[in-house]
């Protein structure tokens, strides 16, 4: 059973995500075990204009300063460079990916700091920073 602080933090993050992306683009199960954002905009140098994001809150999220760090994007994303199309580094479709058979690729960002004021919006800013320069991102 989830702790009340974890439930409250996830519900807060759902509301924040709905405020940014709209209610029709944010999905979650009754268990609050994941949050999906549909049609997340990608920079123009990707092979697709959007991806869906699946964010998995860690155990004890909201209890102690445990950051969001694990998320999934559509499989098959590539980045255009002067040398052609490149795979994303740290973008796992195989053994480390528990949702690979469902069309997701796993990516992990390791925030250096996280405190009570941080939320899914903090995490999405980190995702945006990574997406702006994915080949040079150092998680």
Keywords:
two-stranded antiparallel sheet, 8 strands, six-stranded antiparallel sheet, 22% helix, alpha+beta, 139 residues, 2 helices
List the helices and strands and how they pair.
Layout: H1 4-21, E1 26-27, E2 35-41, E3 50-56, E4 70-74, E5 78-81, E6 84-87, E7 91-92, E8 104-108, H2 120-132
Antiparallel strand pairs: 1-2, 2-3, 3-4, 4-8, 5-6, 7-8
Provide a descriptive summary of the structure in words:
The structure is a single chain. This protein has helices at 4-21, 120-132; strands spanning 26-27, 35-41, 50-56, 70-74, 78-81, 84-87, 91-92, 104-108. The model has no long low-confidence stretch (mean pLDDT 89). 21% of the residues are buried. It is of the alpha+beta class. The longest helix has 18 residues, at 4-21. The chain is 22% helix and 26% strand. Strand 1 (26-27) and strand 2 (35-41) form a beta hairpin. The protein has one domain (4-132). It has 2 helices and 8 strands. The strands form 2 sheets. A 6-stranded antiparallel beta sheet has the order 1-2-3-4-8-7.
Shape: globular
Low-confidence stretches: none
Mean pLDDT: 89
Gyration radius, in Å: 15 Å
Strand order, largest beta sheet: 1-2-3-4-8-7
Task: Write a short abstract of this structure.
By secondary structure, the chain is α+β, with helices and mostly antiparallel strands.
């Amino acid at each position: 059973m989830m702790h009340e602080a974890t439930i409250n933090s996830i519900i807060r993050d759902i509301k924040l995500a709905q405020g940014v992306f709209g209610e029709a683009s944010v999905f979650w199960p009754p268990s609050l075990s994941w949050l999906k954002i549909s049609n997340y905009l990608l920079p123009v140098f990707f092979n697709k204009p959007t991806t869906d994001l699946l964010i998995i809150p860690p155990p004890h999220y909201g209890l102690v300063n445990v950051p969001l760090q694990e998320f999934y994007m559509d499989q098959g994303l590539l980045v255009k460079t002067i040398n052609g199309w490149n795979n994303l580094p740290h973008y796992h479709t195989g053994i480390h990916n528990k949702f690979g058979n469902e069309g997701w690729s796993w990516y992990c960002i390791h925030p250096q700091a996280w405190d009570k004021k941080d939320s899914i919006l903090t995490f999405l800013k980190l995702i945006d920073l990574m997406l702006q320069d994915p080949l040079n991102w150092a998680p």
